[in-house]
């Protein structure tokens, strides 16, 4: 299982610092949505130039203009971009068209989708590389939030999936056991006093 580090910070400088500390222990460096909104696509280019050996993931959360948004982000250096599962099929197909042009991939983020296994199958049939079983930061803070639903939905989907939703060192093993291809961790790494050690600890808890 791959480990993805979601850098939910606001400046390119902070992201470069986080990436430098965590890179030896992670496979995928994610530029979080707030970072891209704050710093722009130049942040994507900066991370790819600093870490050409890593998969650079731009969490665009595209809802419309799929081909345009994906095309300009791949041109900036991203290897993977996200489109929302709640977007129309034509938006997902547009992003997939741009991905094929660049030899890159589209991940569909199922945040806010009620029937995640059903939508997962649909979007992979449309050309998505994999789906993200995702409970966002707001949902994680809601009363009654349960992480295990994401794992059940992933298993039920029958397609390649990642999991994101506050993963930490005590939950990452269950993520791997669910059959996920990728575990996404944000706060558990960037919120730690020692970012490199936190990433290393997550890496040590899983197998390739
Ligand atoms: O995309 C996101 C929020 O929309 C986060 O990057 C994702 O949820 C991972 O961060 P965390 O592990 O802190 O939940």
TrEMBL record:
SUPFAM superfamilies xref list: Ribulose-phoshate binding barrel
GO MF annotation, one: 3-dehydro-L-gulonate-6-phosphate decarboxylase activity
Pathway where this protein functions: One-carbon metabolism; formaldehyde assimilation via RuMP pathway; D-fructose 6-phosphate from D-ribulose 5-phosphate and formaldehyde: step 1/2
Record flagged with keyword Lyase: yes
Keywords of the record: Carbohydrate metabolism, Lyase
EC number, as in UniProt: 4.1.2.43
Catalytic activity of the protein: D-ribulose 5-phosphate + formaldehyde = D-arabino-hex-3-ulose 6-phosphate
Record has Amino-acid biosynthesis as a keyword: no
Residue ranges of every copy of the Orotidine 5'-phosphate decarboxylase domain listed in the record: 2-202
NCBIfam families, per the entry: RuMP_HxlA (TIGR03128)
Family: Belongs to the HPS/KGPDC family. HPS subfamily.
PANTHER family: 3-KETO-L-GULONATE-6-PHOSPHATE DECARBOXYLASE SGBH-RELATED (PTHR35039:SF3)
Designated name of the protein: 3-hexulose-6-phosphate synthase
